[in-house]
């Protein structure tokens, strides 16, 4: 294998190694991103359900104040604002398990509470108000039960996905660390093995050239390879022969010059 081919092999290992790490990271992070979006959706639903429960208590509190003192305007404004808030949140109930049942309970709750409020503001007798409040109490109990179930379900989904995301992130970090270590070790081993075929022959060639320059050797430098090092060895042997021949001719010339 030529030196150029060895360098290309190292480049391929680098490209393949980084490619594998990138693909794994991209795939895992895509899964985590998908889970995060799903968790964000559950968080949004959970927040809206909490707001719905808050409006429910505000409707009950405002209606009690209106029934006690019908002439006060502030409780009625609060009542209207709270009921409108519930109505605006109805769409969230359409997409959740048990949401349509809960929506029906809210509609009945607001209907009967509104009748009780209107009776009180119109100065009707307490019997009419009491009748509507009894109906309201029934729907109030059912609403709280269904809404608590839905909130617990959404919170359970959020907790589960949160654990999943944490586990996926931990696995990603650990796997990437292990892959990088394996990749570095593999690269070090490959470079070490390939470099032996380059460094050692050059060290031998350097030593051989030193021996020739000191006159301690006239042997050819032998490298059993067809790569650039092998070609360098052939060129060196030719240069050595030319050098030795030139030295021999120089010695003969001096010998002839010294003869009488």
Summary keywords:
2 domains; Four Helix Bundle (Hemerythrin (Met), subunit A); single chain; 260 residues
Q: What is the level 1 CATH name of the largest domain?
A: Mainly Alpha
Q: State the major sheet.
A: none
Kindly report the CATH topology of the largest domain: Four Helix Bundle (Hemerythrin (Met), subunit A)
The general outline is rod-shaped
Provide the succession of SSEs: HHHHHH
Report Rg. 45 Å
Question: Could you name the ranges where pLDDT drops below 50 across 5 or more consecutive residues?
Answer: none
How far apart lie the N and C ends? Answer: 58 Å
Helical segment count? 6
Domain module tally: 2
Record field, number of beta strands: 0
In terms of DSSP E residues, the strand content is under 5%
| Helix percent band | over 70%
Structural class: mainly alpha
Mind explaining what this structure looks like?
By secondary structure, this protein is mainly alpha-helical. It has 2 domains: 3-181, Up-down Bundle (Four Helix Bundle (Hemerythrin (Met), subunit A)); 187-258. The chain contains 6 helices and no strands. The chain has helices at residues 3-68, 74-88, 90-94, 99-122, 126-213, 228-258. The two termini are 58 Å apart. The model has no long low-confidence stretch (mean pLDDT 82).
Q: How would you sum up this structure in a few lines?
A:
It contains 6 helices and no strands.
Tell me the layout of helices and strands.
Layout: H1 3-68, H2 74-88, H3 90-94, H4 99-122, H5 126-213, H6 228-258
């Amino acid at each position: 294998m030529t030196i150029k081919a060895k360098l290309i092999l190292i480049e391929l290992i680098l490209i393949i190694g980084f490619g594998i790490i990138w693909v794994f990271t991209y795939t895992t992070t895509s899964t985590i991103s998908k889970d995060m979006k799903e968790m964000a959706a559950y968080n949004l639903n959970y927040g809206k359900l909490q707001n719905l429960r808050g409006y429910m208590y505000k409707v009950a509190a405002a209606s009690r104040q209106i029934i006690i003192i019908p002439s006060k305007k502030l409780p009625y404004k609060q009542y209207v604002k709270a009921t409108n808030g519930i109505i605006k949140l109805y769409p969230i109930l359409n997409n959740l398990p048990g949401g349509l049942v809960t929506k029906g309970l809210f509609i009945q709750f607001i209907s009967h509470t509104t009748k009780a409020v209107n009776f009180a503001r119109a100065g009707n007798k307490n019997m009419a108000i009491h009748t509507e409040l009894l109906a309201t109490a029934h729907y109030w109990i059912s609403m709280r039960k269904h809404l608590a179930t839905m909130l617990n379900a959404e919170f359970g989904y959020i907790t589960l996905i949160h654990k999943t995301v944490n586990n996926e992130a931990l696995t990603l970090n650990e796997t990437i660390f292990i892959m990088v270590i394996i990749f570095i070790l593999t690269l070090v081993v490959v470079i070490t093995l390939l470099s032996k075929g380059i460094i050692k022959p050059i060290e031998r060639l350097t030593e051989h050239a030193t021996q020739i320059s000191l006159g301690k050797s006239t042997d050819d430098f032998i490298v059993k390879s067809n790569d650039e090092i092998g070609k360098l060895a052939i060129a060196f042997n030719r240069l050595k022969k030319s050098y030795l021949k030139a030295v021999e001719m120089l010695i003969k010339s001096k010998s002839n010059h010294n003869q009488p």
